[in-house]
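User: Can you write out an input/output pair for a complex, sequences first and structure second?

Assistant: Here is one pair. Inputs:
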Amino acid sequence: MKGETIVFYLLAALTLVSAAMAVGTRRIFRSAVYLLSSLIGIAGLYFWMRFEFAAAVQIVVYAGGIAVLIIFSVFLTQRAGDDMPTPPMLRTIAAAGAALLGMGLVMLQLVAHPFPTPAVAEVDRSVSAIGRRMLATGDDGFALPFEVVSLLLLAAMIGCIVIAMRAKPNQP
Amino acid sequence: MRIKKARSSGRDIRVASMNPDKQPAKFPGLVHETPGGGILSGPLEDVVNWARSNSLWPLTFATSCCGIEMMSTAAAKYDFSRFGFEVARATPRQADVIIIAGTIVNKMAPVLKRLYDQMADPKYVIAMGACAISGGPFFYNTYSVVKGADHVIPVDVYVAGCPPRPEALLHALITLQEKIKSGGKRERIDIDGKNI
Amino acid sequence: MQHMWNFAQLTDLIHGWLYETFPPAWALAFEMIIVGIAVIGLFAGLGLVLVLMERKVSAFMQIRLGPNRVGPKGLMQSLADTLKLLVKEGMTPDGVDRFLFNLAPFIAMIAAMLLMAPIAFAKDFQIWDLNIGVLYVTAISSLNVIAILMAGWSSNNKYSLLGAMRSGAQIVSYELSAGLSILTVVVLTGSLQISDIVTAQSNGWWIFKGHIPVLIAFVIYMIAVTAETNRAPFDMAEAESELTGGFHTEYSGMKFALFFLAEYINVFIVCAIGATLFLGGWMPLHIGEWTAFNGIMDWIPSSVWFFGKTFFLIFLMMWFRWTFPRLRIDQLLNLEWRYLLPIGMVNILLVTVIAILKWHF
Amino acid sequence: MMEPGLYHMLFIGAALFFIGIYGFLTRRNLITMLMSLELILNSVCLNFIAFNRYVWTDRATGPSMSAVPRI
């Protein structure tokens, strides 16, 4: 067995096990930490597939941004030390059944569908190629979604500033 | 003649120390035998004691005027950082030595005890100044002062003075260093063979 | 270029020997082990040197002598400290979340270790020259905040929690400024790869070539990384006079030492990145086409250049620490959001204009 | 064990997706539901990248596409 294969299975195990623990644990802070380790496992998978840029963005966005955001909202809104109540048995069974059923259906489809595996030249995954694609307006460009997302971000930033602005003291 | 007698008496003591039942009556205390002889652990112990003695991080704990002298010891003129003491930690978990710089009143005593308990082993205590040694000027006619910090926690080194000069504190710290280097440990109290 | 000591020959020699002697998988494993041991050794060495340097620099700033009794000139002082912390009791207090409490120092340490990978210590001497080097550093250094939040929360102590939350707010906000000032150099170079950035400076360092905007970016970078590594005057996370010890209040012995070591390693890494981006990394001081001058500079080995620049920046950060008083948390956030970030944004626009019009040298 | 390829990645993506679904259905807490949602989004991103790596390798569409839901 090649070393790469072992690394792949380790990363997959990290991702899936910590994801399962994230939805299973009853302590909310630990849940956030497990979620983070699952996301880092995914970043490891990206590294494994040699998409370094995607991996680095994954770590920046999730470890630096979303995990901190979630942890802060846990600190500020929840009683992080207490255990969360266990969901009722019926709901657990129903949710697990639904998830397993969906998983089975998807797996059936996956096995049935033959994906083409063309031997095309290696993709140019450099940052500049991704950047050009983000701003290209042609057939496979992403200029429109990029601009829409930029607009969304702008709206979010303005909203933040409005919320954070100090109310003016009433002038007597 | 005298030399021979001394030698023989010395041998007597050694024999006696090997057999606790036959100790000379005058010897105050018990001699415990250590199995092995400590050849292997000796040098390692020395190195560890060297490290411990040279990196005594004090807890920032000052209850009255001795604290000013402690600060002076830390400042440029006396500079106890020369001996490796300057990393004053504010949290007892990371401190090695607590310098009781000042009066311990009855309300402070439980806090002092708690801080001492929170420190990680090995931990050392220096009682600085008259108040910490015996209550000092408050020894008579005061209802609120603990008459010496050693009523609360065990003390390794006492420094006299009211308050002691920075040189005295430096000397106390060096004395503590020598105590650690010589392997002198404060005995832990045994109750029914259980270390507490 | 002529160099007296070329690390490439050494690494090639070891690499070739390993692959000749063993099958490829084993050779790779052995290389990994060698690199791991080298990194851990570098860690220990750097930790010892930086702690001693901090104490000596602080003494120098305060007209004291500093440690001078332990070993010759006090050189063994940090060794004694390390040994003492190793044999000191490592407590796990009651009421903590044991798993996270014991995990947090290791996360901090692992994050610091991962950061070593893309740094070029000398010419052709780099663990992993990946094509997004700078972004990788930014990404991994944001893992540090998770370790701090974990330590702060799991300690079950209000000082720890407050310190961790302050530290989280601080690191997340100052990351933006650091990222923007890193981007200025990336815009000028046109690449995220560390080796590209270093070779782009073979005719002069960016801090000289990039006019005033890069100088501004350098200043912002130094301020931002000082805040990001939680060092004074931005040490809100462990403000001793307010929070006793901040996020590591409850840690003792070796677990505390790991945090302590990780902080110093982070200082080294951000300074190494700063030296690579703005001061040319291992690239000697070259001035344009002055061949004679450049030739003389090439005689100084590249590792000496790299460590010289890095330690100069570390000295700068220590200078900050022992000169400025600590900021209040609102002043800290004001400084970032109202001054550094807008200046950084305008600055990167300026740099983009310079890069497009090719005004830089 | 087989050599990992497209199907392995898709299996991981699907498993993450349904773990996320399970969490989303069992939790009754806004933050934990958000966390489950993050898992679902990540499985989608993983699929994009995997398809780009193994099927349509001629374009850098995957990273660009996966960057959009992340923002």
